[in-house]
Amino acid sequence: MQAWRVHENGEPGEVMQRDDVDRPEPGAGQVLLKVRATGLNFPDALLCRGQYQVRPPLPFTPGVEICGETEDGRRVIATPTLPYGGLAEYAVADAASLLPAPEALDDAEAAALHIAYQTGWFGLHRRAALKEGETLLVHAAAGGVGSAAVQLGKAAGATVIGVVGGADKAAVARELGCDTVVDRHAEDVVSAVKEATGGRGADVIYDPVGGAAYQQSAKLVAFEGRIVVVGFASGTIPSPALNHALVKNYSILGLHWGLYNLKDPAAVPRCHETLTELAAKGLIKPYVSERVPFDAAADAVQRLSEGVTTGRLVVLPAGRPDGSPDGLTEGARA
Fold this sequence. Notes:
The chain is α/β, with parallel strands linked by helices. The chain has helices at residues 12-15, 42-49, 107-111, 114-127, 144-155, 167-176, 189-196, 212-220, 242-248, 260-263, 267-280, 297-305, 330-333; strands at 2-6, 16-20, 30-39, 66-69, 75-78, 90-94, 99-100, 135-139, 159-164, 180-183, 202-207, 221-229, 251-254, 288-293, 312-316. The chain is globular.
């Protein structure tokens, strides 16, 4: 089969190599899945660089999120078990972790649902207890993680402010449903958000960026507000001033979604049921900005790592031009 593999750590565009390899052999409690679509995530770039918290043995195949097909033809969502990741024709996953792909989503959309929307749901609801009528600020609102938080915030009845970098990303954030969009390249974020909220700030701030974005969050969080720390895409890990949290009465909440798989695994399928219901109602739908052909996967991971993409990039196997369940476009099915 064909698989993208990393033989040495470095930049994705330089170290990802397309190889002919044997199909992986699943171990005890694992299953072999035919890959229908692979959602790209920032951890894929970190894996290539050797900077992720998990460091699989070389060579390995990136791709931590897929829509796959079981031997009996079921369409499922899975997080492949490294080193046999999703950027291949076949991947390996733990049988107990498989989740049914929502019927409302095609393969590409289903491949982009799991990690970002689970992270968003746990961050906004379980950690921050977002309430209807509150104001939610989302950093990097047009990105893969941020776009999921925007949709989940709107589904919860919140007023959503999206912070983005550039006019193109601002347009995407508006399309996603943000009530207010702030372009950090053209506006002062703190002033713009204070103006939009009448000086009050945001009740919940969702931050997958870190660095300067967190410093802005500390200035913009409302009384008894909650800052949810999701990641550090900027590459800079901030050091919060706890005295500031004390005098302003706000909470700093960390979210490592993967930990729920170990500490409260039953919560993950329950969340998936909720996300499936929201997708069926049309309240959430992964914004797949690019359906990437298999031979362009390395370039796609590189571009994702550089922060120049919007929404979700999904890699499709050869012969699957659109990521729909049967490989046909809507027009062809009609």
